[in-house]
Amino acid sequence: MPKLRFARVMLHVFAGVLTCAFIFPFIAAGKREALVRRWSSQLLGLCNVRVKFIDQSGGQIADHALIIANHVSWLDIFVINSWQACHFVAKADIRSWPIAGWLSAQAGTIFLARGKQREVRRIYEGLVQQLEQNKRIAFFPEGTTGAQGGVLPFHPNLFEAAIEAKVPVLPFAVRYVDAQGQLHPAADFIGEMTFAESMKLILASGEMTAELIQLPNIPTEGAHRREVAQAARVIVAKALGVSLDSV
């Protein structure tokens, strides 16, 4: 069964490549976003992952904000994209991944090369402009994936883009649970685990529910990026029931 499911995932990825190559260049941005949402939802379905959206924001509107979330797995991007298609900020080395890197670029991913200050500044200015144009920008401030049951420190640098663009930060908490509501161990993508190993583990596991929890906006007016980053980490950890005392 996992082999058959893996074959279906590969066919779906191939269909995504064809869509990006032959359809994306000829359609409007809104239609591209709709296709990204549908493709992401279908991919999660093939991986036996069901998405449950939980609104704890008090009904706040999600537009015109910098979106952040804790980072558990490569699944996170598709979970968020199944809700709303976003332009993600990702490490530059992802661009070199076979197929996945090209697909990410076609979906509007913004690749950030660490250590190259001139390029970082150029990309940062682009983020500010896109936020001011009401585009959905998302990133994972932990900078890497972490095991469920904890929240790593949030790097504050990119929060500055929200402050300069005068938009709030919209935080999400992401977790993956089994049929009993317990954290699903197959979701963790950590350490030296490869993408292939993670995919094999997910396809061989039972049904998984991805909970995408929208939290209240964090205002940025007059704030410092470190304050905003810490506030975001605290609210995400609280939603996940995680204590930060030992981290």
UniProtKB/TrEMBL annotation:
The keyword Acyltransferase applies. Residues 65-177 form the Phospholipid/glycerol acyltransferase domain. Pathway: Lipid metabolism. It comes from the Bacteria. CDD domains: LPLAT_AGPAT-like. Keywords: Acyltransferase, Lipid biosynthesis, Lipid metabolism, Transferase. One of its GO terms (molecular function) is acyltransferase activity. InterPro entries: Plipid/glycerol_acylTrfase. Pfam families: Acyltransferase (PF01553). This is 1-acyl-sn-glycerol-3-phosphate acyltransferase.
